[in-house]
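pasting for the record
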Amino acid sequence: MLVLAFDTATDVATSALLDDGRVLGERTSVPRSLLEDVDALLEGADAGPADLDALVVGTGPGSFTSTRIGLALARGLALALDLEVAGISTLEALAAATEDAYPVIDARRGEVFVAGPRAVAPDDLELDPDVLCVGSGAVRYRQTLEDKGAVVPPDGDAIHIPHARLHVSLAPHFGPAEAVVPIYVRAPDAKLRTSA
């Protein structure tokens, strides 16, 4: 089963192509480069879009716009290629990187996304001693988390990235793309203008 997986919820977009669980290729870039990454993965595996059997997409939480990029691509590919899709929380994928990892995603506005999912100020987190915090929020709020007794790997450690290959092993089942919904946690920053 040839599966394409990607996650664009954070500032670092990841994508992977797997054949029956075996990783054929992985890419790390930025969300706006996702289509180029998908093309490169397929080309590197000597495959085309029609060879895909299913998709797995990260559903957030993370950046509103970046999350929408991934979901829009998943829905477009699913519709065009008649593929089933599975959605996996970006927090779950980060937690799957290593045993007992506590995922912390930068939510901007002085907050982080954590399990729940919920948005909370880093100062308000209650952490177990020596808990391993991973993700963009762990990197950004390293000092605060370490002051609370957490362990945060070095900034450049790949454990802070929600690797798309991990999404595939977490996918419980595949279904229609329209059933996959984003995890936003809070309303977007953009506001609709109303006439006076």
